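Action item from last meeting closed. Structure (211 res):
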């Protein structure tokens, strides 16, 4: 009989938004800001200005539950912009004030001046019936700087090669989003709480490239 709802917050902010238990609950969002809490979007490259209209931006939060600073680091204000806490999460805010997170700032891939959101490429991969788990990271590329590469674990009993998945995936993506390769793995790395983790794959690819 319990009602489940989504909430969002950081160690530095506590709970900052929630999908209402009664009323409109928008799946895939982190709901609306709590009372006296303000969410805003800032440009991903220049946090002193807003993002272009309609484009995702880094989420910043201000409110009574947001920390004033880090303990014994009074001069460290790198995580604030105009008094608001920079979250490192990239998102959109719709006309009803519901917030949708599309990626982490540090996970975005820079392809020849274009920004690629790994989670958006992963979302397309998950439409394939053979795909159980998917992660996309940026790997070094001499011409573009970085190129997306996908790692996939298949469903039990499914058969698909990396080349087959790449050829299925790329026509559905923008030119700058297209992956260099799809690598099949038995399983993908996860954090201690069971969330898929890109960090280990990034470290592997850097080691291969000698970086």
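Sequence:
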């Amino acid at each position: 009989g319990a009602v489940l709802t989504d909430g969002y917050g950081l160690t530095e902010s506590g709970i900052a938004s929630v999908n209402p238990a009664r009323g409109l609950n928008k799946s895939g969002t982190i709901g609306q800001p709590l009372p006296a809490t303000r969410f805003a979007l800032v440009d991903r490259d220049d946090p002193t200005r807003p993002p272009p209209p309609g484009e995702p931006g880094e989420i910043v939060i201000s409110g009574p539950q947001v920390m004033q600073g880090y303990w014994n680091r009074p001069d460290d204000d790198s995580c604030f912009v105009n008094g608001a806490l920079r979250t490192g999460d990239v998102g959109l805010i719709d006309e009803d004030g519901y917030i949708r997170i599309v990626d982490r700032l540090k996970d975005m891939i820079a392809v020849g001046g274009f920004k690629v959101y790994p989670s958006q490429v992963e979302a397309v991969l998950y439409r394939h019936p053979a795909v159980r788990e998917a992660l996309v990271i940026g790997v070094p590329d001499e011409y573009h700087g970085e190129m997306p590469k996908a790692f996939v674990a298949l469903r039990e009993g499914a058969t698909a090669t990396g080349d087959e998945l790449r050829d299925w995936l790329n026509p559905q993506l923008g030119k700058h989003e297209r992956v260099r390769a799809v690598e099949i793995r038995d399983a993908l790395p996860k954090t201690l709480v069971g969330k898929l983790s890109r960090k280990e794959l990034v470290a592997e690819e850097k080691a291969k490239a000698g970086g």
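Note appended to the action item: The chain has three helices and 13 strands.
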